[in-house]
């Protein structure tokens, strides 16, 4: 599995494309809002000859969902989100304009993500792990063969997700990190929702929030 990333919108949100030798592709957390951002995503997919087959959100805060409807309009694919984050998603239109996104176009999931039920595309299978605390329905995606986690806003290089937003809880987030991420091998690469990639081992040893 190959991970290709883009950084979009004023929140510097990381959008990921997951694809394999079959060229099937899953889009994770499309944060593209401006037309130039949408075009950059579309152009990469076209240039690489990828076939988008699925849209998933790790969670539904505004910076991770700005491009959902663009992806659905462009590629006509299923859209999956954990059901516990549906209220988070449905709240976005109430504050999008205040955050500077007056043209936000809301999208509704076509199905749900469930811990223990894998996400499959091409020759690839992703394990869905439930990791609330930053958002009530936050999940992360683990690919064992490449020791890769698409982690959303749970664990960052040297930091953790904020817990002062509605539905956030610090103790829950720490518990999620310890049970869902720190149980993985130290060489597991974590691709977070903001900032550079890191590893489980590095964060276990040096992250001040986990000492």
Automatic annotation (TrEMBL):
Keywords for this entry? Hydrolase, Metal-binding, Zinc
Q: Does the keyword Metal-binding belong to this entry?
A: yes
- Superkingdom in the source lineage: Bacteria
Record-given protein name: MBL fold hydrolase
Species of origin: Hymenobacter amundsenii
Q: Which GO terms describe its molecular function?
A: hydrolase activity; metal ion binding
Which InterPro entries does this entry report, sorted A to Z? MBL_Glyoxalase_II, Metallo-B-lactamas, RibonucZ/Hydroxyglut_hydro
**Cofactor(s) for this UniProt protein:** Zn(2+)
Domain spans labelled Metallo-beta-lactamase: 12-194
